[in-house]
Structure formats: C-alpha cells, structure tokens
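Narrative of accomplishments. A recurring question from our advisory board has been how the design workflow behaves on a single, concrete structure rather than in aggregate. To address it, we present the structure tokens for one chain from the evaluation set, followed by the sequence designed for it. No filtering or post-editing was applied between the two.
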C-alpha cells in the first residue's frame, strides 16, 4: 500500500504492539524492535481486510523466510497454507506498495489477512517485504525481489504445498509497476494478475520521475505493455473511485481505456466512492463484494486441474 508523503516522511519502521493485539488470530506477527509508526499510519495498514472466511485462524504459517538471500534483514517472506495435508495448490503472491523495508509490510494486518483469506479459500497466500521504497523509489531492486520471490516459491513448492505451475501476482498501490514484466509473454506458470488500487502508469508521478530513469519508467508502466507480443495474462483491476493518491486514478482510467482498445483480457471491478485502501476499512457492501469476487477470480485461474 502506498501511503501519503506526510506519513512516509516519518521513516516508518513498525506498528505499535497494541496494533498487533487487535488482529483476530493468535499467531499474529510480533512487533519488530523498532520505532513505532504514527497512529494515522497504524490506522491505515494494521486493520485486517473487512471480509473473513471460516478457517482463517487455522492456517498453516511459515514466517521470516529469507527468500532472496538478502543482507537486508527485513526482506523476508511469510507463507499461509490451508491446514491439514499439504497438497499442490495454486499460490498468490501479494506485492505491497511503496514503503521502506523497515516498515515490514508483510506484517501489516491488511497483508496478513489477505494471506489468510487465500489459504481459507484453498490456495496458498505468500506475503513478502521487498525494496520498492518511498518516496525515493527503487523500482529495479523491487522487481528483482519479486522475481526472487517467484523463483523461491517455485523451487520450494513441495515444502509449502504449492503447484509451481499455478502462480498469481496481486499488487497493491505503488506495487502496480511490478506487474509489467508479466503482462504479455509471461512464463506459463504466471496464470493471472490482480491490481488493487495501483499505479498503472508511473511516467507522470513526481516521485518516480525523481528517482528513476526514463528507461525504467517505460519498462515498468503497465499501460505500455498492453500491446506486447505473446500470451496476455488475465488481469483483474479493482478501481477505488474516490482514490486521492495523486495521478493514481488517472493512470488506472487511462489503462482501462487502452486495455479495451488492445482487447486485453481485463476484468474491471469499479467501487464508486471507495477510498484508497478500501479493503481494510468499514466501507460498504460493494467493498465486501469486490473482495469476494477477487477470491473467486483467483480460484478460477488457480484451481485444481
């Protein structure tokens, strides 16, 4: 999730311990020994997704996996699998938005609960912290971490009950550029993509312009990948109609229009009046419906064969 500059400027490190205690499962991630985030930031990222499913509290959980062999102690992964016997199940890799690795995004309530929702739906949920950063972004480093996460999950699929040939990438907020390499001519094991209130064109944002080269801006703007050669990866977009992050909604709207022109396999779920980060807010029934539809999309593309 990408947070406004006023919050990221606080050098976010960790959520306070009392935020973890509010999560509805007993094995919630412990708070790292770091400076606490602001109450405003905690309120934005620590509440779980507003939809719950039976079994979310009984998932099998592996934590703090050094998936990228990184010297950064915060570049780590958690894996959520259904309880019981390990089986070959499709896996969803959840890609967070722009924040320092010290923010430990995978430990936020929103991503813990998405991982559990995937597992309670019969899939394997994978959350991981990567080096995207904000406000000084590190697009290439983050893309390297995403690729490392995919490679690790596939190489260790048997350990976690994953089918290495059924992978989906679900990106949030400033994580949208990470979908670019997988939109066309992607490996066959990448079965689908999900965009949850993400940037789909980073050429016009001042943060990306300041930190990245023109070549990187072009390479990681999904809107420029719609006409690529080869198989087009099915994509689900969740559009928050009242998103206030500068240029984000404009990028999503232009992307949708261009995707239709390119006849790209896109499914668009519009949420009128929804704010950025709607999925863990007490918003309205349309938000809950969109989350259930997202889980159905994942199961449809990653289901048993």
């Amino acid at each position: 999730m990408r947070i406004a500059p006023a919050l990221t400027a606080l050098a976010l490190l960790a959520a306070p311990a009392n935020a973890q205690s509010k999560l509805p499962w007993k094995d919630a991630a412990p708070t790292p020994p770091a400076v606490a985030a602001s109450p405003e930031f905690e309120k934005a990222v620590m509440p779980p997704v507003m939809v719950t499913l039976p079994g979310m509290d009984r998932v099998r959980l592996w934590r703090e996996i050094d998936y990228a062999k990184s010297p950064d102690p915060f570049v780590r992964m958690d894996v959520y699998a259904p309880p019981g016997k390990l089986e070959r199940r499709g896996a969803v890799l959840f890609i967070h938005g722009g924040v320092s690795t010290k923010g430990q995004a995978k430990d936020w309530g929103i991503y813990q609960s998405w991982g559990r929702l995937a597992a309670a739906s019969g899939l394997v949920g994978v959350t991981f912290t990567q080096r995207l950063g904000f406000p000084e972004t590190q697009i290439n480093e983050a893309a390297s971490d995403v690729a490392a996460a995919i490679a690790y999950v596939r190489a260790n699929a048997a350990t976690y009950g994953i089918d290495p040939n059924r992978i989906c990438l679900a990106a949030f907020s400033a994580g949208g550029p990470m979908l670019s390499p997988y939109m066309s001519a992607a490996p066959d094991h990448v079965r689908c993509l999900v965009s949850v209130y993400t940037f789909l064109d980073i050429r016009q944002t001042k943060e990306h312009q300041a930190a990245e080269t023109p070549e990187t801006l072009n390479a990681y703007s999904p809107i420029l990948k719609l006409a690529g050669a080869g198989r087009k990866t099915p994509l689900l977009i969740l559009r928050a109609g009242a998103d206030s992050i500068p240029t984000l909604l404009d990028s999503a709207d232009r992307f949708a229009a261009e995707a239709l022109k390119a006849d790209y396999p896109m499914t668009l779920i519009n949420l009128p009046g929804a704010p950025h980060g709607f999925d863990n807010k007490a918003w309205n029934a349309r938000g809950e419906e969109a989350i259930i539809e997202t889980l159905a999309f994942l199961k449809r593309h990653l289901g048993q064969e």
